[in-house]
């Protein structure tokens, strides 16, 4: 009888161990599935952001007419009006006398690029770094174009909300990229608000 009790207890212990082992295995598999699911969701989100970024880049940079890199700025023959970039104690002072605006870039932007292009009567100046050309973009609109956009606020809402200033000839709007593909430039993207606040429309 005593041996029978020992056998029953032993079998019970083995059964409990097997059940616990099965639970541990099940939980491990569930965690793996959840991990894979999270990775898939992250990849989908990243791809969506990249698609948005590419669409944004195409809209901002189609038919580029000039590409200007870093310090000092060199202009092509077709854009021979003065563009200046000067390092001072605060950062990098950028001035565009072609369209009449200036802004201040932090020192982290040393070696930056500027691409200027036209699309459907609208001009875009995209500021970036080597490897990512449009960390932020300034839309440059004629007074006539801006006036038409104001008459259609539904389609022009994004541009109207991005307004940052104007001079006698142009109206300016400023847009931040949805993301940066090169994580080295996350710092530059996060400086968007400070750069935006430094923007000045110059008298033309």
Task: Describe the protein in words.
By secondary structure, this protein is α+β, with helices and mostly antiparallel strands. The protein folds into 2 domains: 61 residues; 139 residues, no CATH class. 44% of the residues lie in helices and 29% in strands. The protein contains 5 helices and 10 strands. A 6-stranded antiparallel beta sheet has the order 1-5-6-7-9-8. Strands 2-3-4-10 form a 4-stranded antiparallel beta sheet. About 21% of the residues have low confidence.
TL;DR of this structure?
This protein is an alpha+beta fold and 204 residues long. It has helices spanning 2-61, 143-151, 153-161, 186-190, 192-198; strands spanning 64-69, 83-87, 92-96, 101-105, 113-119, 122-129, 132-142, 163-166, 170-176, 200-201. The protein is 44% helix and 29% strand.
Name the quaternary structure: single chain
* Mean pLDDT value: 74
> What are the segments in which pLDDT stays under 50 over at least 5 consecutive residues?
40-81
N-C termini distance:
107 Å
Structural class of the helices, strands and pairings? alpha+beta
Helix content: 40-55%
- Biggest sheet overview: 6 strands, antiparallel
Number of domains: 2
List keywords for this structure.
single chain, 204 residues, alpha+beta, 6-stranded antiparallel sheet, 5 helices, 10 strands, elongated
Element layout with pairings:
Blueprint: H1 2-61, E1 64-69, E2 83-87, E3 92-96, E4 101-105, E5 113-119, E6 122-129, E7 132-142, H2 143-151, H3 153-161, E8 163-166, E9 170-176, H4 186-190, H5 192-198, E10 200-201
Antiparallel strand pairs: 1-5, 2-3, 3-4, 4-10, 5-6, 6-7, 7-9, 8-9
Helix pairs in contact: 2-3
